[in-house]
Amino acid sequence: MRHFIRNCIFLILFYILHFPTHTQAQTTLLFENPTYNIGNVIKSEKAITHSFTFKNIGTKPIHILSVVPDCSCLTISYPQTPIQPNETGTITVSYLPYRAGAFEKGFVVNSDGNPRTQTLTLKGFISPNTNPANIFTHKNGRLYFRYKNLNFGSITNQSTVARKFEMYNPSNEDIYFTDRVIKPSHINVYFDSSHIIPAGKVGAIVLTYNPIVKNEVGFFQEEIIMFTADRDSVRMTIAIEVQGEQYTSTPAPMYVSPTTTVRKPTLRVSEIRQNLGNIYPDMIVITEFVIYNEGSLDLKIEKLETDEFCEVQDINNWQNMIIPPHQFRIIKVRFKQGKEIGKQQGKVTVYSNDIATPSQNIEFQANVIEY
């Protein structure tokens, strides 16, 4: 037994004496921050760039063999020569913020160091570009629109559909619209009470499309003509695209004659559900929806109710607000997400004197993610 113990001690001493630098010879790249949150950036065509700094804390030179991104949207540069011991270097990543919302991009660094592979991460949040000149690029008269045509998308012949369309006035003068509009009977145009698109500002109109009155299915390209209050009464022709489809789950609604008139207030909202996408727990999210009166009598907004996840700005101003016929108002809502990660949902309820629809819910959905 004593002989066995002596042999073991001899082997341990022999290993230590003959391989003193074994653990020290391991070559390692130490990254200062392998995960970097770039924060909020504006959506643009200009790439954002970040450099990951590292140091060779080993005793041998290290070769970076390759850096492999998880998508083609990343451009990467890295040292092509060996990194000597105690030497620092950088891996530079360029990312094009082409889509609004949260992003997280990873890439793998392959080297002959220890470990052989290391993962770096670049993440952040891309905010929409708020410069109107970059958003509204299609000119129509003195105004600019987001798109050449106003597209309603696919709608069924169940009920009237509303869309808010924005326009940008880049000039130094306000643009006034008159009440004169040339349009098909199944399309209505709603201005705000001023009929003004202010100089240097973004304004909006609300269009409603009644597929029951249209009483046809298929793809349609139609026009409305609006007139400004300029000296020459400039006319503006706006193209509208609609894909009308038959609703088959229930019988189609009864056809209503365009000449039918019922004197009453009629509450309509631009949408009953909004998806706010990915958001962070401490991010301020403000959205909006449109209320408009499609009826022939004043619409009275009796009150707005919210749950814990929604907050209507200037909510007291909406108590007993009157919206005249064929007018609209924009309601701004702050989504108050909780700290819990995952899907969250809020609601705003509109109460009015519309006998047919005395209350209308608008739901807001968001997916709360970690930084």
From TrEMBL:
Q: Where is the signal peptide?
A: 1-25
Q: Which UniProt keywords apply?
A: Signal
Q: What lineage does UniProt assign to this protein's organism?
A: Bacteria, Pseudomonadati, Bacteroidota, Cytophagia, Cytophagales
The answer on whether this UniProt entry bears the keyword Signal reads yes
Pfam families assigned: DUF1573
What superkingdom does the record give?
Answer: Bacteria
InterPro entries hit by this protein: DUF1573, Ig-like_fold
PANTHER family in the record? LIPOPROTEIN-RELATED, SIGNAL PEPTIDE PROTEIN
Q: State the name under which the record lists this protein.
A: DUF1573 domain-containing protein
